[in-house]
Each structure stands twice: as structure tokens, then as C-alpha cells.
Amino acid sequence: MSNLSAPYFHDPDAAREHLEAIRWPDGAVCPHCGEAEKVYRIKSKRVRPGVYKCGKKACRKQFSVTVGTLFERSHIPLNQWFQAAYLICSSKKGISSHQLHRILGVTYKTAWFMTHRLREAMKDGPIFKEPMGGEGVTVEADETYLGGKKRGKNAKGVQYGIADRMKVVSLVERGGKARSFYVDRVRSKSVRDILVTNVERATALMTDEAYHYRVVGKEFKSHDRVHHAAKEYDRGNAHTNTIEGFFSIFKRGMKGVYQHCREHHLHRYLGEFDFRYNTRDVDDMTRTNAALEGIAGKRLMYRHS
Prior knowledge:
Layout: H1 12-23, E1 39-41, E2 52-54, E3 62-63, H2 78-90, H3 97-104, H4 108-122, E4 138-146, E5 152-153, E6 159-160, E7 166-173, E8 178-183, H5 188-198, E9 204-208, H6 214-217, E10 222-226, E11 234-235, E12 238-239, H7 241-258, H8 266-278, H9 284-292
Parallel strand pairs: 4-9, 9-10
Antiparallel strand pairs: 1-2, 2-3, 4-7, 5-6, 7-8, 11-12
Helix pairs in contact: 1-2, 2-4, 2-9, 3-4, 4-8, 7-8
């Protein structure tokens, strides 16, 4: 099943078993010491279902599938966590905490807590461990701005009045993945740090005419630019339409769904939109399961929000 009628969306025990299948496809693993062989399930009416014990002499600790994850010691039923994850992952532009609290029947504070924890699971996934691009691959780079007051453009088409706005630099492979980064200032150094860290030198780089791409562009196999100020938006294969399409979804979500975002939360929203874009070719349930694979080692408390 790939919709909300699946049993693990309604039964906490079914949700726990489904999470065990996602986290432990080859059997339970002790989160305390990493032991996998000497682990057994405790079968006792005095112990709640889903509790395991490590048989290693140096450990001997009890645990469940939620230990060491975002769900550890959560008072929210696991099946409700699954519902929230599915709704976020299946909504192209996201779903607001207010909407989630009405659907799930939880308080707004709880819904806000859940959405931020699930965004934490989505960001910094395996996709960020491998460099983008490569031989024969084109990566488009561009920046966008959120919040603040956009004053306008000067005679040369350059924006002014953006000092108080949040700055985002994104990289998008044509036909591939996306990565987005929050930066304090969009300048040559910050842009270069992002590009050389995340993109292979054999890549064909594609940008607009912004000055901060000119020097770093020489470090890649090729660097083509389109001159938006001169109303040039494509020149054969030279265009930034892919990343503009990514930004259009991101901005519709941030302005139309989330509306307000504080600077210290922006990295999680970026991770959410990157994740959905990077899993756009799979169905909603597969995308949800992929998000749940990222819950380990990311337990957060309210005070860390």
C-alpha cells in the first residue's frame, strides 16, 4: 500500500514493526554497542512489545527501534509520526504545521515539533556524501533571497536593498540532484567554497552573469553564462532553467505554505525541499521510507529548536 490506509498509519505496533524493517533489514542491532548477533527480543507480559536486549556481556542493555533516533522517548504514537512523515513527503510544496495539527488532532506546538524533527531526518542524507557533476554532466548554480524588503533594481538590472534578506545558494544537476545552502553573504569566496566542495572539477558549470561566479568558473571544465540583465534566458544549451524551476517550487512553498521562516531554521527547510526534489522519481511511500532512514543519531529536544 502506498497511501494512508496502510496498517502502520493507524496501529502503533504495526508502525513499530514497519520501522524495524526499515532500520534493521537484517535483524535488530544494539544502538548502544553495535552488537547484532547476540541480540534477542524480550517476550514477557511485563515488558511492552518491541523491547530487545543485548546479550553481549559488556553491554546487556535493553532497547527498542526508536532508541537513538528522533522518536526516542516521544509521547506521540509512532503511527502519528508516520502520518506526519507521509503528509510532508507527499506534499510537493510542503505542509504547514497548522494544517498538520488540524489533520492529526494534535496541538500546534506538537505539530511544529514534529515537522522540524522530520526535516532534520531529511537533510544531510547520503546524497551529500558524494560530489555532484562529473564528466559530461552540467551543474547549474544560482542564488535566491527570502524575507526582508526587496527594494528594486538599478539601471543595470542589479538588485539593491537585499542586505536584510536571507540568502540561499543552490546547485542543481541537470536530470540529477539538488543541494542548497544558507550563506551570510553571496560573494566570490562563499560561492567558491560551496562549488569546490560539492562539485567535481570535470563538470560543466552553468550560471548567470553574476560576478561571484566568474573566477571560480575557471576551475571547472567549462563555464557558460546567460545574461539575464540583457533579457537573455537561453542560448542553445546555455541556460539556468533547471535551477529556476527548482527555485519556483521552493519559493511557492516558503511564501505560500510556510510564509514565515527564521534564519536559524532555514537549513532544515532547505533540506526538506532538496530531499523532495532528489526523490521526485519515486512514489510517496518510498520517499517517506527514505526520510525515515535518516532518523538515527538525530535526537533533538525542544530547547535545541
